[in-house]
Protein backbone atom coordinates (compact mmCIF):
# COMPACT_ATOMS: atom_id res chain seq x y z
CA UNK A 1 0.00 0.00 0.00
CA UNK A 2 1.18 3.53 -0.78
CA UNK A 3 0.26 4.60 2.76
CA UNK A 4 3.21 2.61 4.17
CA UNK A 5 5.19 5.74 3.38
CA UNK A 6 4.26 8.94 5.18
CA UNK A 7 5.35 12.55 5.38
CA UNK A 8 7.40 13.12 8.51
CA UNK A 9 5.43 16.28 9.37
CA UNK A 10 2.56 18.47 8.25
CA UNK A 11 5.08 21.14 7.20
CA UNK A 12 6.86 18.60 5.02
CA UNK A 13 3.60 17.76 3.26
CA UNK A 14 2.64 21.43 2.78
CA UNK A 15 6.06 22.28 1.34
CA UNK A 16 5.96 19.30 -1.02
CA UNK A 17 2.37 20.01 -2.08
CA UNK A 18 3.15 23.70 -2.52
CA UNK A 19 6.21 22.73 -4.52
CA UNK A 20 4.01 20.64 -6.78
CA UNK A 21 1.63 23.54 -7.34
CA UNK A 22 4.25 26.30 -7.55
CA UNK A 23 5.93 25.72 -10.85
CA UNK A 24 6.12 27.33 -14.25
CA UNK A 25 2.43 28.26 -13.96
CA UNK A 26 3.03 30.68 -11.09
CA UNK A 27 6.47 32.07 -11.95
CA UNK A 28 6.57 31.92 -15.75
CA UNK A 29 2.98 31.84 -16.99
CA UNK A 30 1.26 34.15 -14.47
CA UNK A 31 3.40 37.26 -15.22
CA UNK A 32 2.95 37.07 -18.98
CA UNK A 33 -0.77 36.27 -18.67
CA UNK A 34 -1.29 39.18 -16.26
CA UNK A 35 0.86 41.46 -18.40
CA UNK A 36 -1.22 40.79 -21.50
CA UNK A 37 -4.62 40.84 -19.77
CA UNK A 38 -4.98 43.94 -17.66
CA UNK A 39 -2.57 43.47 -14.76
CA UNK A 40 -4.48 44.28 -11.57
CA UNK A 41 -7.87 43.11 -12.88
CA UNK A 42 -6.38 39.78 -13.92
CA UNK A 43 -4.63 39.35 -10.55
CA UNK A 44 -7.81 40.12 -8.59
CA UNK A 45 -9.80 37.61 -10.65
CA UNK A 46 -7.00 35.08 -10.28
CA UNK A 47 -7.22 35.32 -6.47
CA UNK A 48 -11.02 35.03 -6.57
CA UNK A 49 -10.98 31.92 -8.75
CA UNK A 50 -8.14 30.32 -6.79
CA UNK A 51 -10.35 30.54 -3.70
CA UNK A 52 -13.60 29.48 -5.40
CA UNK A 53 -12.31 26.83 -7.84
CA UNK A 54 -8.71 25.80 -7.27
CA UNK A 55 -8.76 25.36 -3.49
CA UNK A 56 -12.05 23.35 -3.38
CA UNK A 57 -10.74 20.83 -5.96
CA UNK A 58 -7.42 20.68 -4.14
CA UNK A 59 -9.24 19.72 -0.93
CA UNK A 60 -11.27 17.15 -2.87
CA UNK A 61 -8.07 15.46 -4.06
CA UNK A 62 -6.72 15.51 -0.50
CA UNK A 63 -9.86 13.78 0.77
CA UNK A 64 -9.76 11.05 -1.88
CA UNK A 65 -6.08 10.31 -1.30
CA UNK A 66 -6.09 10.22 2.49
CA UNK A 67 -9.37 8.33 2.76
CA UNK A 68 -8.16 5.58 0.40
CA UNK A 69 -4.50 5.68 1.46
CA UNK A 70 -3.33 4.56 -1.96
CA UNK A 71 -2.03 5.77 -5.31
CA UNK A 72 -4.35 7.63 -7.69
CA UNK A 73 -5.68 4.61 -9.59
CA UNK A 74 -6.09 2.33 -6.56
CA UNK A 75 -7.75 5.11 -4.52
CA UNK A 76 -10.73 5.31 -6.89
CA UNK A 77 -10.94 1.52 -7.05
CA UNK A 78 -11.12 1.33 -3.25
CA UNK A 79 -13.67 4.11 -2.84
CA UNK A 80 -15.86 3.06 -5.79
CA UNK A 81 -15.33 -0.67 -6.37
CA UNK A 82 -16.87 -2.43 -9.35
CA UNK A 83 -17.19 0.82 -11.29
CA UNK A 84 -15.32 2.85 -13.89
CA UNK A 85 -14.36 5.71 -11.59
CA UNK A 86 -10.77 4.45 -11.43
CA UNK A 87 -10.42 5.73 -15.00
CA UNK A 88 -9.95 9.18 -13.40
CA UNK A 89 -6.71 7.83 -11.97
CA UNK A 90 -5.63 6.47 -15.33
CA UNK A 91 -6.48 9.80 -16.96
CA UNK A 92 -4.41 11.70 -14.40
CA UNK A 93 -1.47 9.32 -14.81
CA UNK A 94 -1.49 9.57 -18.62
CA UNK A 95 -1.89 13.35 -18.63
CA UNK A 96 0.89 13.65 -16.02
CA UNK A 97 3.19 11.58 -18.24
CA UNK A 98 2.52 13.83 -21.24
CA UNK A 99 3.06 16.96 -19.14
CA UNK A 100 6.37 15.61 -17.80
CA UNK A 101 7.51 14.87 -21.37
CA UNK A 102 7.37 18.55 -22.40
CA UNK A 103 7.81 20.06 -18.92
CA UNK A 104 11.28 18.54 -18.85
CA UNK A 105 12.02 20.35 -22.12
CA UNK A 106 11.35 23.73 -20.47
CA UNK A 107 13.41 22.56 -17.48
CA UNK A 108 16.22 21.96 -19.95
CA UNK A 109 15.87 25.49 -21.35
CA UNK A 110 16.24 26.84 -17.82
CA UNK A 111 19.40 24.77 -17.27
CA UNK A 112 20.84 26.04 -20.57
CA UNK A 113 20.23 29.64 -19.56
CA UNK A 114 21.51 29.04 -16.04
CA UNK A 115 24.78 27.65 -17.44
CA UNK A 116 25.17 30.69 -19.69
CA UNK A 117 24.35 33.03 -16.83
CA UNK A 118 26.84 31.43 -14.43
CA UNK A 119 29.61 31.48 -17.05
CA UNK A 120 28.90 35.13 -17.89
CA UNK A 121 28.03 34.54 -21.54
CA UNK A 122 24.46 35.83 -21.15
CA UNK A 123 25.17 39.48 -20.40
CA UNK A 124 25.72 42.47 -22.65
CA UNK A 125 23.04 41.85 -25.26
CA UNK A 126 19.99 43.72 -26.57
CA UNK A 127 16.38 42.51 -26.44
CA UNK A 128 16.66 41.59 -30.11
CA UNK A 129 19.88 39.74 -29.34
CA UNK A 130 18.23 37.81 -26.52
CA UNK A 131 15.35 36.91 -28.83
CA UNK A 132 17.83 35.54 -31.36
CA UNK A 133 19.63 33.66 -28.58
CA UNK A 134 16.41 32.05 -27.38
CA UNK A 135 15.59 30.92 -30.92
CA UNK A 136 19.12 29.53 -31.21
CA UNK A 137 18.89 27.61 -27.92
CA UNK A 138 15.52 25.95 -28.51
CA UNK A 139 16.37 25.03 -32.11
CA UNK A 140 19.72 23.38 -31.27
CA UNK A 141 18.90 19.63 -31.17
CA UNK A 142 21.91 18.51 -29.15
CA UNK A 143 21.64 21.25 -26.57
CA UNK A 144 17.93 20.82 -25.91
CA UNK A 145 18.17 17.02 -25.67
CA UNK A 146 21.19 17.03 -23.36
CA UNK A 147 19.64 19.71 -21.13
CA UNK A 148 16.31 17.86 -21.06
CA UNK A 149 18.15 14.65 -20.10
CA UNK A 150 20.03 16.38 -17.28
CA UNK A 151 16.79 17.86 -15.91
CA UNK A 152 15.11 14.44 -16.01
CA UNK A 153 18.03 12.76 -14.23
CA UNK A 154 17.84 15.41 -11.47
CA UNK A 155 14.12 14.66 -11.09
CA UNK A 156 14.61 10.88 -11.04
CA UNK A 157 17.42 11.06 -8.46
CA UNK A 158 15.10 12.76 -5.97
CA UNK A 159 11.94 10.72 -6.60
CA UNK A 160 13.78 7.38 -6.36
CA UNK A 161 14.68 8.29 -2.77
CA UNK A 162 11.03 8.01 -1.74
CA UNK A 163 8.63 10.33 0.03
CA UNK A 164 10.66 11.21 3.12
CA UNK A 165 14.27 10.91 1.98
CA UNK A 166 13.61 12.12 -1.56
CA UNK A 167 10.70 14.46 -2.22
CA UNK A 168 10.17 15.83 1.30
CA UNK A 169 13.87 16.37 1.98
CA UNK A 170 14.40 18.18 -1.34
CA UNK A 171 11.26 20.32 -0.81
CA UNK A 172 12.38 21.32 2.69
CA UNK A 173 15.48 22.92 1.19
CA UNK A 174 14.15 24.12 -2.15
CA UNK A 175 10.92 25.81 -1.08
CA UNK A 176 12.39 28.03 1.69
CA UNK A 177 15.29 28.85 -0.65
CA UNK A 178 12.79 29.80 -3.34
CA UNK A 179 11.06 32.29 -1.03
CA UNK A 180 14.35 33.79 0.17
CA UNK A 181 15.57 34.27 -3.40
CA UNK A 182 12.26 35.80 -4.37
CA UNK A 183 12.37 38.34 -1.56
CA UNK A 184 15.92 39.32 -2.58
CA UNK A 185 14.72 39.95 -6.15
CA UNK A 186 11.58 41.80 -5.02
CA UNK A 187 13.65 44.18 -2.88
CA UNK A 188 16.00 44.83 -5.82
CA UNK A 189 13.13 45.42 -8.25
CA UNK A 190 11.26 47.76 -5.91
CA UNK A 191 14.34 49.95 -5.38
CA UNK A 192 14.57 50.82 -9.10
CA UNK A 193 13.54 54.32 -10.19
CA UNK A 194 10.03 54.15 -11.65
CA UNK A 195 9.27 50.74 -10.07
CA UNK A 196 6.02 51.95 -8.48
CA UNK A 197 4.41 52.18 -11.92
CA UNK A 198 4.82 48.41 -12.22
CA UNK A 199 3.42 47.89 -8.72
CA UNK A 200 0.35 49.95 -9.62
CA UNK A 201 -0.09 47.96 -12.82
CA UNK A 202 -0.16 44.71 -10.83
CA UNK A 203 -2.14 45.75 -7.76
CA UNK A 204 -4.54 48.49 -8.90
CA UNK A 205 -7.34 47.12 -11.12
CA UNK A 206 -8.09 49.03 -14.29
CA UNK A 207 -11.73 48.12 -14.75
CA UNK A 208 -11.67 49.13 -18.40
CA UNK A 209 -9.60 45.96 -18.94
CA UNK A 210 -12.37 43.74 -17.55
CA UNK A 211 -13.71 41.59 -20.39
CA UNK A 212 -15.22 38.14 -20.73
CA UNK A 213 -11.92 36.91 -22.11
CA UNK A 214 -10.04 38.25 -19.09
CA UNK A 215 -12.45 36.48 -16.73
CA UNK A 216 -12.06 33.13 -18.50
CA UNK A 217 -8.27 33.41 -18.76
CA UNK A 218 -7.97 34.29 -15.06
CA UNK A 219 -10.22 31.35 -14.22
CA UNK A 220 -8.02 29.04 -16.27
CA UNK A 221 -4.83 30.40 -14.71
CA UNK A 222 -6.15 29.87 -11.18
CA UNK A 223 -7.19 26.37 -12.13
CA UNK A 224 -3.93 25.35 -13.78
CA UNK A 225 -1.57 27.10 -11.35
CA UNK A 226 -2.49 24.59 -8.63
CA UNK A 227 -2.17 21.64 -11.06
CA UNK A 228 -5.48 20.20 -9.90
CA UNK A 229 -7.16 17.56 -12.00
CA UNK A 230 -4.14 15.26 -12.37
CA UNK A 231 -4.83 13.37 -9.11
CA UNK A 232 -1.24 14.23 -8.15
CA UNK A 233 -2.56 15.49 -4.82
CA UNK A 234 -4.50 12.24 -4.40
CA UNK A 235 -1.15 10.44 -4.38
CA UNK A 236 0.51 13.01 -2.11
CA UNK A 237 -2.41 12.96 0.37
CA UNK A 238 -2.26 9.16 0.55
CA UNK A 239 0.92 9.64 2.63
CA UNK A 240 -0.91 11.85 5.18
CA UNK A 241 -1.67 10.65 8.70
CA UNK A 242 -5.30 10.89 9.85
CA UNK A 243 -4.65 13.63 12.42
CA UNK A 244 -3.62 16.28 9.88
CA UNK A 245 -6.09 19.03 8.99
CA UNK A 246 -6.72 18.82 5.26
CA UNK A 247 -8.70 22.10 5.01
CA UNK A 248 -5.80 24.00 6.58
CA UNK A 249 -3.36 22.28 4.23
CA UNK A 250 -5.49 23.20 1.19
CA UNK A 251 -5.66 26.83 2.39
CA UNK A 252 -1.89 26.89 3.01
CA UNK A 253 -1.00 25.49 -0.42
CA UNK A 254 -3.45 27.80 -2.21
CA UNK A 255 -2.21 30.80 -0.23
CA UNK A 256 1.42 30.03 -1.01
CA UNK A 257 0.55 29.74 -4.68
CA UNK A 258 -1.08 33.20 -4.64
CA UNK A 259 1.91 34.60 -2.73
CA UNK A 260 4.42 33.23 -5.25
CA UNK A 261 2.39 34.64 -8.14
CA UNK A 262 2.36 38.02 -6.36
CA UNK A 263 6.12 37.88 -5.79
CA UNK A 264 6.73 36.93 -9.43
CA UNK A 265 4.71 39.96 -10.47
CA UNK A 266 6.57 42.21 -8.03
CA UNK A 267 9.88 41.07 -9.49
CA UNK A 268 8.97 41.42 -13.14
CA UNK A 269 6.57 44.36 -13.56
CA UNK A 270 8.47 46.98 -11.48
CA UNK A 271 11.68 46.08 -13.35
CA UNK A 272 9.94 46.07 -16.73
CA UNK A 273 8.34 49.49 -16.17
CA UNK A 274 11.41 51.04 -14.54
CA UNK A 275 13.58 50.18 -17.52
CA UNK A 276 11.13 51.18 -20.22
CA UNK A 277 9.85 47.81 -21.41
CA UNK A 278 6.24 46.78 -21.99
CA UNK A 279 4.43 44.22 -19.76
CA UNK A 280 2.59 42.43 -22.58
CA UNK A 281 5.59 40.52 -23.92
CA UNK A 282 4.00 37.06 -23.91
CA UNK A 283 5.64 33.69 -23.07
CA UNK A 284 9.13 34.94 -23.98
CA UNK A 285 9.19 37.30 -21.02
CA UNK A 286 11.40 34.99 -18.91
CA UNK A 287 13.92 34.14 -21.61
CA UNK A 288 13.90 37.24 -23.84
CA UNK A 289 12.67 40.28 -21.87
CA UNK A 290 14.03 39.54 -18.39
CA UNK A 291 17.65 39.05 -19.50
CA UNK A 292 17.43 42.43 -21.24
CA UNK A 293 15.82 43.98 -18.15
CA UNK A 294 18.41 42.60 -15.72
CA UNK A 295 21.18 43.58 -18.14
CA UNK A 296 20.26 47.23 -17.48
CA UNK A 297 20.66 46.86 -13.70
CA UNK A 298 23.74 47.06 -11.54
CA UNK A 299 24.77 43.46 -10.77
CA UNK A 300 22.03 42.41 -13.20
CA UNK A 301 23.84 39.20 -14.15
CA UNK A 302 23.82 38.08 -10.51
CA UNK A 303 20.14 38.84 -10.06
CA UNK A 304 19.15 37.08 -13.27
CA UNK A 305 21.13 34.03 -12.13
CA UNK A 306 19.16 34.10 -8.86
CA UNK A 307 15.92 34.27 -10.85
CA UNK A 308 16.93 31.25 -12.95
CA UNK A 309 17.83 29.26 -9.82
CA UNK A 310 14.43 29.86 -8.23
CA UNK A 311 12.71 29.09 -11.54
CA UNK A 312 14.66 25.81 -11.66
CA UNK A 313 13.68 24.98 -8.07
CA UNK A 314 10.00 25.60 -8.83
CA UNK A 315 10.15 23.53 -12.00
CA UNK A 316 11.88 20.63 -10.26
CA UNK A 317 9.46 20.48 -7.30
CA UNK A 318 6.56 20.28 -9.76
CA UNK A 319 8.36 17.61 -11.78
CA UNK A 320 8.84 15.54 -8.59
CA UNK A 321 5.08 15.31 -8.06
CA UNK A 322 4.32 14.59 -11.71
CA UNK A 323 6.82 11.73 -11.81
CA UNK A 324 5.64 10.46 -8.42
CA UNK A 325 2.09 9.72 -9.60
CA UNK A 326 3.41 7.20 -12.13
CA UNK A 327 6.00 5.71 -9.79
CA UNK A 328 3.47 5.32 -6.97
CA UNK A 329 0.98 3.65 -9.29
CA UNK A 330 3.53 1.08 -10.43
CA UNK A 331 5.38 0.42 -7.16
CA UNK A 332 2.23 0.30 -4.98
CA UNK A 333 4.26 1.59 -2.02
CA UNK A 334 6.98 -1.07 -2.23
CA UNK A 335 10.17 0.90 -1.55
CA UNK A 336 12.34 -1.79 -3.14
CA UNK A 337 10.70 -1.08 -6.51
CA UNK A 338 10.93 2.72 -6.42
CA UNK A 339 14.37 2.99 -7.96
CA UNK A 340 13.51 0.73 -10.89
CA UNK A 341 10.18 2.40 -11.65
CA UNK A 342 11.58 5.93 -11.15
CA UNK A 343 14.17 5.34 -13.84
CA UNK A 344 11.76 3.45 -16.06
CA UNK A 345 9.05 6.15 -16.04
CA UNK A 346 11.61 8.95 -16.19
CA UNK A 347 13.42 7.50 -19.20
CA UNK A 348 10.12 6.84 -21.00
CA UNK A 349 9.03 10.44 -20.34
CA UNK A 350 12.36 11.66 -21.72
CA UNK A 351 11.92 9.59 -24.88
CA UNK A 352 8.31 10.76 -25.25
CA UNK A 353 9.53 14.34 -24.89
CA UNK A 354 12.07 14.15 -27.72
CA UNK A 355 9.54 15.32 -30.36
CA UNK A 356 8.64 18.29 -28.13
CA UNK A 357 12.30 19.10 -27.58
CA UNK A 358 12.90 19.13 -31.34
CA UNK A 359 9.67 21.02 -32.15
CA UNK A 360 11.46 24.33 -32.65
CA UNK A 361 14.23 22.88 -34.78
CA UNK A 362 14.52 19.78 -36.93
CA UNK A 363 10.88 18.72 -36.36
CA UNK A 364 9.45 22.23 -36.60
CA UNK A 365 7.66 21.59 -39.87
CA UNK A 366 5.68 18.61 -38.53
CA UNK A 367 2.25 19.69 -37.28
CA UNK A 368 -0.65 18.03 -35.47
CA UNK A 369 -3.89 20.00 -35.80
CA UNK A 370 -1.78 22.94 -36.90
CA UNK A 371 0.50 22.79 -33.85
CA UNK A 372 4.04 21.52 -33.38
CA UNK A 373 4.61 18.60 -30.99
CA UNK A 374 5.40 20.85 -27.99
CA UNK A 375 2.38 23.12 -28.42
CA UNK A 376 0.09 20.18 -29.15
CA UNK A 377 1.15 18.36 -25.95
CA UNK A 378 0.73 21.58 -23.96
CA UNK A 379 -2.67 22.29 -25.51
CA UNK A 380 -4.12 18.80 -25.12
CA UNK A 381 -3.13 18.58 -21.43
CA UNK A 382 -3.72 22.15 -20.24
CA UNK A 383 -6.93 22.84 -22.15
CA UNK A 384 -8.54 19.40 -21.97
CA UNK A 385 -6.74 16.86 -19.76
CA UNK A 386 -6.61 18.91 -16.56
CA UNK A 387 -10.11 20.42 -16.69
CA UNK A 388 -11.74 17.09 -17.60
CA UNK A 389 -9.90 15.41 -14.71
CA UNK A 390 -10.95 18.15 -12.28
CA UNK A 391 -14.55 18.01 -13.51
CA UNK A 392 -14.69 14.25 -12.89
CA UNK A 393 -13.10 14.66 -9.45
CA UNK A 394 -15.69 17.26 -8.45
CA UNK A 395 -18.50 14.97 -9.62
CA UNK A 396 -16.94 11.99 -7.82
CA UNK A 397 -16.69 13.83 -4.51
CA UNK A 398 -19.98 15.68 -4.89
CA UNK A 399 -22.23 12.88 -6.11
CA UNK A 400 -20.53 9.44 -6.01
CA UNK A 401 -19.30 9.44 -2.42
CA UNK A 402 -21.77 9.73 0.43
CA UNK A 403 -21.84 13.24 1.87
CA UNK A 404 -21.56 11.94 5.45
CA UNK A 405 -18.53 9.83 4.57
CA UNK A 406 -16.85 12.89 3.08
CA UNK A 407 -17.76 14.91 6.18
CA UNK A 408 -16.30 12.24 8.48
CA UNK A 409 -13.00 12.31 6.56
CA UNK A 410 -12.77 16.11 6.36
CA UNK A 411 -13.27 16.71 10.06
CA UNK A 412 -10.52 14.26 11.10
CA UNK A 413 -7.78 16.43 12.56
CA UNK A 414 -9.77 19.55 11.67
CA UNK A 415 -12.04 21.98 13.47
CA UNK A 416 -14.01 22.81 10.31
CA UNK A 417 -17.65 23.68 10.99
CA UNK A 418 -20.58 21.96 9.34
CA UNK A 419 -21.62 25.26 7.75
CA UNK A 420 -18.22 25.72 6.06
CA UNK A 421 -18.31 22.11 4.90
CA UNK A 422 -21.77 22.59 3.37
CA UNK A 423 -20.57 25.72 1.57
CA UNK A 424 -17.60 23.77 0.19
CA UNK A 425 -19.94 21.00 -0.98
CA UNK A 426 -22.06 23.60 -2.77
CA UNK A 427 -18.97 24.82 -4.58
CA UNK A 428 -17.92 21.27 -5.50
CA UNK A 429 -21.37 20.20 -6.69
CA UNK A 430 -22.43 23.28 -8.64
CA UNK A 431 -20.01 26.22 -8.94
CA UNK A 432 -16.85 24.27 -9.79
CA UNK A 433 -18.42 22.01 -12.48
CA UNK A 434 -20.10 25.00 -14.15
CA UNK A 435 -16.82 26.98 -14.15
CA UNK A 436 -14.89 24.04 -15.60
CA UNK A 437 -17.50 23.48 -18.29
CA UNK A 438 -17.14 27.15 -19.26
CA UNK A 439 -13.37 26.64 -19.61
CA UNK A 440 -13.88 23.50 -21.71
CA UNK A 441 -16.48 25.13 -23.96
CA UNK A 442 -14.29 28.20 -24.44
CA UNK A 443 -11.25 26.04 -25.23
UniProtKB/TrEMBL annotation:
Q: Identify a single GO molecular function assigned to this protein.
A: symporter activity
**Does the record's keyword annotation contain Oxidoreductase?**
no
Which positions, given as ranges, span the membrane?
A: 12-30, 42-64, 84-111, 144-163, 175-195, 215-239, 251-277, 297-320, 341-364, 384-401, 421-441
Keywords on record? Membrane, Symport, Transmembrane, Transmembrane helix, Transport
- CDD domains per record: SLC6sbd_Tyt1-Like
One Pfam family recorded for the sequence: SNF
Q: Does the keyword Hydrolase apply?
A: no
Q: Name one GO cellular component term.
A: membrane
Q: How does it sit in the membrane?
A: Multi-pass membrane protein
Cell compartment(s), UniProt: Membrane
SUPFAM superfamilies hit by this protein: SNF-like
Report the domain of life of the source organism. Bacteria
InterPro entries in alphabetical order? Na/ntran_symport (IPR000175), SNS_sf (IPR037272), YocR/YhdH-like (IPR047218)
Family membership: Belongs to the sodium:neurotransmitter symporter (SNF) (TC 2.A.22) family.
Q: What is this protein called?
A: Transporter
What taxonomic classification does the UniProt entry list for its organism? Bacteria, Bacillati, Bacillota, Bacilli, Bacillales
